[in-house]
Amino acid sequence: MRAIELSGASWRKSSYSNSDGGNCLEVADGVTPLVPVRDSKDPGRGVLVFGPRAWGHFVRAYRSTST
């Protein structure tokens, strides 16, 4: 597995995160073609990195369970 440089990444909170501090997911933009994801409440804990197809599957699965 290769290391991915994220020290200069611009993180944004997911639009699916709620406003009371729970379920806070952050996504790093500009790390094409990868999609780095972390927990905004504990950003030092680690990062999950998805490929484009896997990220699409993740988002679709979340949407289907959140309705």
UniProtKB/TrEMBL annotation:
<feature type="region of interest" description="Disordered">
    <location>
        <begin position="1"/>
        <end position="22"/>
    </location>
</feature>
<dbReference type="InterPro" id="IPR007278">
    <property type="entry name" value="DUF397"/>
</dbReference>
<protein>
    <recommendedName>
        <fullName>DUF397 domain-containing protein</fullName>
    </recommendedName>
</protein>
<feature type="domain" description="DUF397">
    <location>
        <begin position="9"/>
        <end position="62"/>
    </location>
</feature>
<feature type="compositionally biased region" description="Polar residues">
    <location>
        <begin position="12"/>
        <end position="21"/>
    </location>
</feature>
<dbReference type="Pfam" id="PF04149">
    <property type="entry name" value="DUF397"/>
</dbReference>
